[in-house]
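Hi Y.,

Following your request, here is the sequence exactly as I used it, all 356 residues.
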Amino acid sequence: MTEQTPFSVPLGQNKKVARRDALKSGLAVLGGAAVIATGTRSVSVADAALPLTPDDRRASPKRYEMKKSINLWAFPYPERMTLEECMRLAKNAGFDGIELNYDLENDLSPKATVKDLVAIRAMADRIGIAISGLCSFLFWPYPLTSNDLAKRQRGLELAGLIAKAAHEMGVENVLVVPGAVHIPWRTDHEPVPNDICDARAVEAIGVLAKQAETLNVSLNIENIFFNGYLMTPMEMNAFVDRFDNGHVKVHFDTGNISMFQNAEHWIPILGKRIQNVHFKEFTKKGTDYSLETFRPLLDGTTHWPAVMDALDAIGYRGFVTFEYFHPYRFYPEALVYQTSDSLDRMLGTLAPSRVS
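Below is the corresponding structure, written out as tokens. Let me know if you'd prefer a different format.
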């Protein structure tokens, strides 16, 4: 019996005959060195002449028209890489966009002037990568619903600065955490009663929504289990819809609700409200309900084919952004390239499996 492999037709003489016939027909030239591009890699003309068949063990057999993005937290920035180096790496790895993070100290912060912000956008344009959105960890030390009035006021101020930065940079999407009943990783946060949290969140987003209209940015409310607020898609819909404002939408995060629920169940309920998406991998096999439960893409329990189908069914064609908080200690480029490869497989943008 002729030997076979999972991704090939019988090896041996038949393969040799096929290659010889291809050479004789003139399909391979220059001593067999000619190559053509198929998908994301090049193959010899002789191999490309062989039939192509999808293989769902390798990648999605269906292609999804969404754009690949990666959050800056996946890079060793600013300790080991500059913002420009991160952007160039993302571009070289095959990403369409990069999501930038607003903080208190670095390139994108209250220290940045309008000139600085415009320069960041110009740098991205030169490199050829989009800025898929702005987000920030500042919503945790300065929650919009904190019992501390000074923290609430500072949070509102910072959220406004993030929106203004997006406007100056020509960036559409601004992620907003509307409030928190509880913040498990902070010992300085006093729990907020649910009804008070809701009232404060509505007040804060009402102010920010008016700013978003003026600035022409999209204020996208993120779903997060860790904050104990907006715990179901129906609650999220009710919160967003109460503003009746086209500038208030949803930033859907697949990992943030995966502790107890399933991303593919939220998507059809949120529907067209979804303006931007985080792809976070999560494992239900662990019991450590913290940021440590998030994993590199495909190394978890998320049902990605179902997630992709659900996003496609609502007509989502925007960015899907990998968000991860642990750059690799050694050879951090590996995480970026691995993520790009994983997204290609999830999006079905790899070439179909070759019969060779």
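Residues 82 and 197 are 38 Å apart (CA to CA).

Thanks again,
Q.
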